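Sharing in case it's useful to others searching the archive later.

Someone asked me privately for the predicted structure of Aminotransferase, so I'm posting the question and my answer publicly. Question first, with the sequence:
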Amino acid sequence: MTHSLVSKMKKELSLIQPSDILKFDQEASAIPGIIKLTIGEPDFNTPEHVKEAGRRSIDNNRSHYAPPNGTPELRQAISHFLEKKYGLFYNADHEILVTAGATEAIYTVLTSILNPGDKVLMPTPIFPLYIPDTLLAKAEPVFMDTSANGFVLSPELLEKTLAEHGDAVKAVIFNFPCNPTGVTYRREQIEALANVLKKHDIFVICDDIYSELTYGERHVSMAEYLPDQAIVINGASKSHAMTGWRIGFICAPAVIATELGKIHQFTITSTATVAQDAALEAFENGMDDGIHMRAEYQKRRDFVYEAMSKIGFDCVKPQGAFYLFAKIPAHMIQKSMAFSRDLAHKAKVAVIPGGSFGPGGEGYIRISYAASMEQLQEAMRRIATYAETNKKQRSVQQ
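And my answer, the predicted structure tokens:
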């Protein structure tokens, strides 16, 4: 009976496999003495003033349902945060939804806009979560491999892909600073892409979750150039080290936000009130909490980039987020999953295989440097030893 019921489940589930990232992280976690540079989670604690706001919320018995779209105070704080930080203007009453992290925001957006047969353009390598959500909606991911262009989507490739797929294209997804490459886009690059997109009646999904973690120039959202087409996704997870609080948000023109609110409301009702009260403190009085974290990440970025380059890995220097995407040297195992397993068992360092991030990612590994400097130093020492041993074995074989 159970088997027959399984066969009656949503058929698109057969297209989806459990997350490679989480699966490999769990596998590596079982190795004694492993240093994990796998999951993209800040190693900082939530700021004290934000935690205190959460405690106050509990003490004040803020344990009842919040409004489905979020408390008015939090939505107002998010509106002010976006205006001051990125020059984006969203009405707190009608254009902002508070979600259970950026993950729920992605699900809500894709579920709301996609019909069977629609296509979603994705520059790859890319955070893989967008892919199963697209498939569940009976839509089709269309990958644009950016590896030949320094992991930056060119206007030419975008225009070519749009022309190839025509009216079936419903949306394009931008996630920058990018997970997994750490690449971000300069203003002139964004403007050039926006000039292509404004000629097409499609949604532009802007996953800006790493917007506070840029090294050098301030983050520029695609929504600045395409306010009528853009749906912005962001949250408190990376900017305020609040991953476990599960606070994200969606911003869109009112007529679009109203429709998104339907899926959001019937999916989770509302985000936890206590978490919203903590996030209110974060966005209202901790607008710059991410600055000291960013400074520390930049030090780690510089160290890991220099160490990996010296070992012999070809890397694009990250300009944001906390990931390094490194090309596996030609004399080593080339399949990213096999390489990552070998590295984990022999060097006791866990990284994520690049093949998990779509076309252009195979042959690379992703290193998360959201770890302490002490861990990173030991990890680089172990990888250097692994590389040297690998080199000697290859020399003997020749």
